[in-house]
Amino acid sequence: MKKVIIQAAKRAGIVEVPAPQAVRDWALIKIHCAPMCTEYKSFESGETSSFLGHEAAGEVVEIAQPGPVSVGDRVVVMPQYPCGTCSLCVKGEYIHCEDVVDFKAFTGGEQGCDTYAQYILKPAWLLPRIPDDISYEHAAMLCCGLGPTFGAMQRMRVEAFDTVLITGMGPVGLGGVINGVFRGARIIAVVRNPYRARLARELGAEMVVDPDDSDVRDKILKATANQGVDKAIDCSGDPSAQRLCVETARRQGAIAFVGESGDLNIKVSDDLIRKGLALFGIWHYNLGDIPRLWQVVRGSPGLLDKLITHAFPLEKVEEAWKLQSTRRCGKVILYPWRQG
Protein backbone atom coordinates (compact mmCIF):
# COMPACT_ATOMS: atom_id res chain seq x y z
CA MET A 1 0.00 0.00 0.00
CA LYS A 2 1.01 3.64 -0.42
CA LYS A 3 1.61 5.94 2.52
CA VAL A 4 3.13 9.34 3.32
CA ILE A 5 6.35 9.93 5.22
CA ILE A 6 8.24 13.11 6.15
CA GLN A 7 11.83 12.81 4.96
CA ALA A 8 13.15 16.24 5.96
CA ALA A 9 12.04 19.84 6.39
CA LYS A 10 9.40 20.57 3.73
CA ARG A 11 10.08 17.28 2.01
CA ALA A 12 7.57 14.44 1.92
CA GLY A 13 7.70 11.05 0.28
CA ILE A 14 5.22 8.41 -0.87
CA VAL A 15 6.45 4.91 -0.09
CA GLU A 16 5.17 1.40 -0.69
CA VAL A 17 4.84 -0.81 2.40
CA PRO A 18 3.10 -4.16 3.01
CA ALA A 19 -0.63 -3.80 3.63
CA PRO A 20 -1.66 -4.94 7.12
CA GLN A 21 -4.15 -7.75 7.75
CA ALA A 22 -7.14 -7.97 10.09
CA VAL A 23 -6.23 -9.61 13.36
CA ARG A 24 -8.46 -10.93 16.18
CA ASP A 25 -11.11 -8.28 16.88
CA TRP A 26 -9.44 -5.57 14.77
CA ALA A 27 -10.73 -4.76 11.28
CA LEU A 28 -8.89 -3.61 8.17
CA ILE A 29 -10.21 -0.35 6.74
CA LYS A 30 -9.68 1.00 3.23
CA ILE A 31 -9.32 4.74 3.79
CA HIS A 32 -11.49 6.79 1.42
CA CYS A 33 -10.69 10.22 2.89
CA ALA A 34 -8.29 11.42 5.56
CA PRO A 35 -8.74 14.90 7.06
CA MET A 36 -5.43 16.62 7.74
CA CYS A 37 -4.66 18.00 11.19
CA THR A 38 -1.43 19.50 12.59
CA GLU A 39 1.00 17.17 10.82
CA TYR A 40 2.04 20.11 8.64
CA LYS A 41 3.96 21.51 11.61
CA SER A 42 6.30 18.51 11.52
CA PHE A 43 6.63 19.01 7.75
CA GLU A 44 7.65 22.64 8.37
CA SER A 45 10.15 21.81 11.11
CA GLY A 46 11.67 18.74 9.51
CA GLU A 47 10.64 16.33 12.23
CA THR A 48 10.88 13.07 10.29
CA SER A 49 8.03 10.61 10.66
CA SER A 50 6.79 7.44 8.98
CA PHE A 51 3.41 7.38 10.74
CA LEU A 52 1.16 10.35 10.10
CA GLY A 53 -2.51 11.15 10.67
CA HIS A 54 -5.20 10.10 13.12
CA GLU A 55 -8.59 10.77 11.49
CA ALA A 56 -10.33 9.17 8.53
CA ALA A 57 -13.42 7.58 7.08
CA GLY A 58 -13.46 4.44 4.98
CA GLU A 59 -14.76 0.97 4.26
CA VAL A 60 -14.27 -2.27 6.17
CA VAL A 61 -12.54 -4.66 3.76
CA GLU A 62 -11.42 -7.47 6.07
CA ILE A 63 -12.32 -8.91 9.47
CA ALA A 64 -10.68 -11.81 11.28
CA GLN A 65 -13.73 -12.78 13.34
CA PRO A 66 -17.41 -11.76 13.62
CA GLY A 67 -17.98 -8.55 15.54
CA PRO A 68 -19.73 -5.19 15.53
CA VAL A 69 -18.75 -4.38 11.91
CA SER A 70 -18.89 -6.38 8.68
CA VAL A 71 -17.05 -6.25 5.37
CA GLY A 72 -18.58 -3.48 3.29
CA ASP A 73 -19.56 -1.28 6.23
CA ARG A 74 -18.78 2.42 5.84
CA VAL A 75 -17.16 3.63 9.07
CA VAL A 76 -15.49 6.54 10.83
CA VAL A 77 -11.96 5.79 11.99
CA MET A 78 -11.70 7.13 15.53
CA PRO A 79 -8.29 8.12 16.94
CA GLN A 80 -5.92 6.12 19.15
CA TYR A 81 -5.81 2.48 20.25
CA PRO A 82 -7.60 2.28 23.62
CA CYS A 83 -7.99 -1.02 25.45
CA GLY A 84 -11.79 -1.22 25.20
CA THR A 85 -12.17 -2.89 28.60
CA CYS A 86 -11.21 -0.37 31.30
CA SER A 87 -13.86 1.68 33.10
CA LEU A 88 -13.18 4.73 30.94
CA CYS A 89 -13.54 2.83 27.66
CA VAL A 90 -16.69 1.06 28.85
CA LYS A 91 -18.23 4.46 29.69
CA GLY A 92 -17.41 5.77 26.21
CA GLU A 93 -14.53 7.93 27.44
CA TYR A 94 -12.01 5.91 25.43
CA ILE A 95 -9.91 8.98 24.61
CA HIS A 96 -8.72 9.04 28.24
CA CYS A 97 -7.79 5.33 28.36
CA GLU A 98 -4.64 4.78 30.40
CA ASP A 99 -4.01 1.25 29.13
CA VAL A 100 -3.64 1.79 25.38
CA VAL A 101 -2.77 -1.23 23.25
CA ASP A 102 0.79 -1.80 22.05
CA PHE A 103 0.11 -1.80 18.30
CA LYS A 104 3.21 -3.70 17.24
CA ALA A 105 2.86 -6.35 19.94
CA PHE A 106 -0.86 -6.85 19.16
CA THR A 107 -0.60 -6.99 15.37
CA GLY A 108 2.88 -8.39 14.93
CA GLY A 109 3.86 -5.54 12.62
CA GLU A 110 4.30 -1.76 12.39
CA GLN A 111 2.16 -0.82 9.41
CA GLY A 112 -1.51 0.14 9.60
CA CYS A 113 -1.67 2.65 12.45
CA ASP A 114 -1.67 5.90 10.43
CA THR A 115 -4.23 7.59 8.20
CA TYR A 116 -1.99 9.21 5.58
CA ALA A 117 -2.13 5.78 3.97
CA GLN A 118 -4.43 3.54 1.96
CA TYR A 119 -5.29 1.12 4.77
CA ILE A 120 -5.51 1.18 8.55
CA LEU A 121 -6.21 -1.34 11.33
CA LYS A 122 -8.64 -0.40 14.11
CA PRO A 123 -10.50 -2.15 16.93
CA ALA A 124 -13.91 -3.02 15.53
CA TRP A 125 -15.71 -1.43 18.48
CA LEU A 126 -14.06 1.91 17.65
CA LEU A 127 -15.58 2.16 14.17
CA PRO A 128 -18.96 3.94 14.16
CA ARG A 129 -21.02 3.04 11.10
CA ILE A 130 -21.76 5.89 8.71
CA PRO A 131 -25.47 6.31 7.89
CA ASP A 132 -26.33 5.80 4.22
CA ASP A 133 -27.32 9.44 3.70
CA ILE A 134 -23.98 10.87 4.88
CA SER A 135 -20.86 11.16 2.72
CA TYR A 136 -17.39 9.98 3.71
CA GLU A 137 -16.20 13.59 3.79
CA HIS A 138 -18.91 14.80 6.15
CA ALA A 139 -18.61 11.68 8.32
CA ALA A 140 -14.86 12.25 8.69
CA MET A 141 -15.64 15.56 10.42
CA LEU A 142 -16.67 13.54 13.51
CA CYS A 143 -12.98 13.41 14.42
CA CYS A 144 -11.10 16.72 14.71
CA GLY A 145 -13.45 18.78 12.57
CA LEU A 146 -16.49 18.76 14.85
CA GLY A 147 -15.42 16.42 17.65
CA PRO A 148 -13.42 18.49 20.18
CA THR A 149 -15.77 21.46 20.32
CA PHE A 150 -18.80 19.17 20.29
CA GLY A 151 -17.37 17.51 23.39
CA ALA A 152 -16.80 20.93 24.95
CA MET A 153 -20.35 22.06 24.25
CA GLN A 154 -21.76 18.83 25.65
CA ARG A 155 -19.81 19.25 28.88
CA MET A 156 -20.82 22.90 29.22
CA ARG A 157 -24.40 22.25 28.06
CA VAL A 158 -24.38 24.96 25.42
CA GLU A 159 -27.88 25.95 24.34
CA ALA A 160 -29.76 28.57 22.35
CA PHE A 161 -29.77 31.07 25.22
CA ASP A 162 -25.96 31.16 25.35
CA THR A 163 -23.38 33.52 23.94
CA VAL A 164 -20.26 31.48 23.25
CA LEU A 165 -16.77 32.89 22.73
CA ILE A 166 -14.44 30.74 20.60
CA THR A 167 -10.79 31.74 20.42
CA GLY A 168 -8.73 30.36 17.54
CA MET A 169 -10.30 29.76 14.13
CA GLY A 170 -8.22 26.90 12.84
CA PRO A 171 -10.26 23.93 11.60
CA VAL A 172 -11.17 22.94 15.18
CA GLY A 173 -12.43 26.41 16.07
CA LEU A 174 -14.29 26.71 12.77
CA GLY A 175 -15.95 23.39 13.56
CA GLY A 176 -16.95 24.95 16.87
CA VAL A 177 -18.82 27.70 15.02
CA ILE A 178 -20.83 25.01 13.20
CA ASN A 179 -21.56 23.19 16.46
CA GLY A 180 -22.67 26.40 18.15
CA VAL A 181 -24.85 27.52 15.24
CA PHE A 182 -26.55 24.12 15.17
CA ARG A 183 -27.45 24.56 18.85
CA GLY A 184 -28.80 28.05 18.22
CA ALA A 185 -26.12 29.77 20.30
CA ARG A 186 -24.72 33.20 19.54
CA ILE A 187 -21.06 32.85 18.51
CA ILE A 188 -18.27 35.39 18.97
CA ALA A 189 -15.10 34.30 17.14
CA VAL A 190 -11.60 35.54 17.95
CA VAL A 191 -9.18 35.30 15.02
CA ARG A 192 -6.42 37.40 13.42
CA ASN A 193 -6.20 35.56 10.07
CA PRO A 194 -8.37 37.44 7.50
CA TYR A 195 -9.16 34.31 5.48
CA ARG A 196 -10.42 32.44 8.53
CA ALA A 197 -12.19 35.50 9.90
CA ARG A 198 -14.22 35.63 6.69
CA LEU A 199 -14.86 31.89 6.85
CA ALA A 200 -16.03 32.14 10.47
CA ARG A 201 -18.62 34.72 9.40
CA GLU A 202 -19.76 32.51 6.53
CA LEU A 203 -20.22 29.63 8.96
CA GLY A 204 -22.46 31.75 11.18
CA ALA A 205 -20.35 33.63 13.72
CA GLU A 206 -22.34 36.73 14.66
CA MET A 207 -19.27 38.70 15.69
CA VAL A 208 -15.60 38.32 14.73
CA VAL A 209 -12.86 40.19 16.61
CA ASP A 210 -9.09 40.44 16.18
CA PRO A 211 -7.09 39.39 19.27
CA ASP A 212 -4.48 42.05 18.40
CA ASP A 213 -6.99 44.88 18.84
CA SER A 214 -6.13 46.83 21.98
CA ASP A 215 -9.80 46.96 22.93
CA VAL A 216 -10.74 43.35 22.10
CA ARG A 217 -11.76 42.62 25.70
CA ASP A 218 -13.98 45.72 25.83
CA LYS A 219 -15.60 44.84 22.50
CA ILE A 220 -16.58 41.40 23.79
CA LEU A 221 -17.92 42.75 27.07
CA LYS A 222 -19.87 45.51 25.28
CA ALA A 223 -21.46 42.87 23.04
CA THR A 224 -22.74 41.10 26.16
CA ALA A 225 -24.07 44.18 27.98
CA ASN A 226 -20.93 44.02 30.16
CA GLN A 227 -22.06 40.72 31.66
CA GLY A 228 -19.52 38.55 29.85
CA VAL A 229 -20.01 35.50 27.66
CA ASP A 230 -21.90 32.51 29.04
CA LYS A 231 -19.42 29.94 27.74
CA ALA A 232 -15.96 30.13 26.17
CA ILE A 233 -13.86 27.61 24.25
CA ASP A 234 -10.19 28.11 23.52
CA CYS A 235 -9.02 26.30 20.37
CA SER A 236 -5.84 28.32 19.87
CA GLY A 237 -3.51 26.92 22.52
CA ASP A 238 -2.34 30.51 23.07
CA PRO A 239 -2.15 31.53 26.76
CA SER A 240 -3.18 35.11 25.88
CA ALA A 241 -6.33 33.78 24.20
CA GLN A 242 -7.02 31.49 27.14
CA ARG A 243 -6.59 34.48 29.41
CA LEU A 244 -9.11 36.39 27.28
CA CYS A 245 -11.61 33.58 27.87
CA VAL A 246 -11.11 33.89 31.62
CA GLU A 247 -11.43 37.67 31.62
CA THR A 248 -14.53 37.86 29.42
CA ALA A 249 -16.53 34.98 30.89
CA ARG A 250 -19.46 36.03 33.03
CA ARG A 251 -19.78 35.15 36.68
CA GLN A 252 -20.67 31.46 37.03
CA GLY A 253 -19.81 30.95 33.38
CA ALA A 254 -17.85 28.01 31.96
CA ILE A 255 -14.65 27.67 29.93
CA ALA A 256 -13.36 24.68 27.96
CA PHE A 257 -9.71 24.39 26.95
CA VAL A 258 -9.32 22.45 23.70
CA GLY A 259 -6.10 23.90 22.24
CA GLU A 260 -2.83 22.39 23.44
CA SER A 261 -0.48 24.92 25.02
CA GLY A 262 1.94 25.85 27.76
CA ASP A 263 1.26 27.58 31.06
CA LEU A 264 -1.78 29.74 31.78
CA ASN A 265 -1.71 32.07 34.76
CA ILE A 266 -4.87 31.51 36.82
CA LYS A 267 -5.66 33.66 39.84
CA VAL A 268 -7.57 31.24 42.00
CA SER A 269 -9.37 33.84 44.09
CA ASP A 270 -10.18 36.48 41.48
CA ASP A 271 -10.66 34.21 38.45
CA LEU A 272 -12.26 31.14 39.94
CA ILE A 273 -13.67 31.60 43.42
CA ARG A 274 -14.97 35.17 43.07
CA LYS A 275 -16.35 34.57 39.57
CA GLY A 276 -17.47 31.01 40.21
CA LEU A 277 -16.08 29.79 36.90
CA ALA A 278 -16.17 26.15 35.84
CA LEU A 279 -13.14 24.98 33.84
CA PHE A 280 -13.04 21.92 31.56
CA GLY A 281 -10.17 20.24 29.80
CA ILE A 282 -11.57 18.72 26.59
CA TRP A 283 -9.84 16.29 24.26
CA HIS A 284 -12.76 14.65 22.46
CA TYR A 285 -16.29 13.41 23.22
CA ASN A 286 -18.09 10.41 24.65
CA LEU A 287 -18.81 7.65 22.12
CA GLY A 288 -22.38 7.52 23.38
CA ASP A 289 -22.92 10.93 21.78
CA ILE A 290 -22.33 9.70 18.23
CA PRO A 291 -26.09 9.79 17.39
CA ARG A 292 -26.18 13.46 18.38
CA LEU A 293 -23.18 14.21 16.21
CA TRP A 294 -24.97 12.63 13.26
CA GLN A 295 -27.75 15.14 13.91
CA VAL A 296 -25.24 17.99 13.65
CA VAL A 297 -23.86 16.55 10.40
CA ARG A 298 -27.32 16.07 8.88
CA GLY A 299 -28.36 19.56 9.92
CA SER A 300 -25.25 21.30 8.59
CA PRO A 301 -24.38 19.95 5.11
CA GLY A 302 -23.82 23.35 3.54
CA LEU A 303 -21.67 24.54 6.42
CA LEU A 304 -19.55 21.39 6.33
CA ASP A 305 -18.97 21.97 2.63
CA LYS A 306 -17.69 25.45 3.51
CA LEU A 307 -15.50 24.06 6.33
CA ILE A 308 -13.81 21.61 3.93
CA THR A 309 -12.04 24.11 1.71
CA HIS A 310 -9.50 21.96 -0.14
CA ALA A 311 -8.81 18.34 -1.13
CA PHE A 312 -5.73 16.63 -2.57
CA PRO A 313 -4.68 13.16 -3.73
CA LEU A 314 -2.03 11.47 -1.60
CA GLU A 315 0.72 12.26 -4.09
CA LYS A 316 0.17 16.01 -3.60
CA VAL A 317 0.58 15.97 0.17
CA GLU A 318 3.46 18.48 -0.02
CA GLU A 319 1.17 20.93 -1.80
CA ALA A 320 -1.48 20.36 0.86
CA TRP A 321 0.98 20.96 3.70
CA LYS A 322 2.30 24.14 2.09
CA LEU A 323 -1.29 25.38 1.84
CA GLN A 324 -1.92 24.58 5.50
CA SER A 325 1.22 26.51 6.41
CA THR A 326 -0.33 29.67 4.93
CA ARG A 327 -3.44 29.24 7.15
CA ARG A 328 -5.50 30.22 4.10
CA CYS A 329 -7.72 27.18 4.37
CA GLY A 330 -10.27 25.46 6.52
CA LYS A 331 -10.27 21.68 6.83
CA VAL A 332 -8.14 19.96 4.19
CA ILE A 333 -8.72 16.37 3.04
CA LEU A 334 -6.40 13.78 1.52
CA TYR A 335 -7.71 11.10 -0.83
CA PRO A 336 -5.40 8.03 -0.62
CA TRP A 337 -6.86 6.40 -3.74
CA ARG A 338 -7.48 9.37 -5.98
CA GLN A 339 -5.17 10.01 -8.94
CA GLY A 340 -4.09 13.35 -10.35
Summarize the structure in words.
The protein folds into two domains: 2-130 and 300-335, Quinone Oxidoreductase, Chain A, domain 1 (Alpha-Beta Complex), CATH 3.90.180.10; 147-281, NAD(P)-binding Rossmann-like Domain (Rossmann fold, 3-Layer(aba) Sandwich). The chain contains 13 helices and 14 strands. The strands form three sheets. Strands 3, 4, 5, 6, 13 and 14 form a six-stranded mixed beta sheet that branches. Strands 9-8-7-10-11-12 form a six-stranded parallel beta sheet, with helices on both faces. A two-stranded antiparallel ribbon has the order 1-2. The chain has 340 residues and is of the alpha/beta class.
Short description:
This protein has helices at 39-45, 87-90, 103-107, 136-139, 147-156, 171-183, 194-203, 216-222, 239-248, 268-273, 290-299, 301-307, 317-326; strands at residues 2-8, 11-16, 26-35, 56-63, 74-77, 119-123, 163-167, 186-190, 207-209, 229-234, 249-257, 278-281, 308-313, 331-335. With 340 residues, it is an alpha/beta fold.
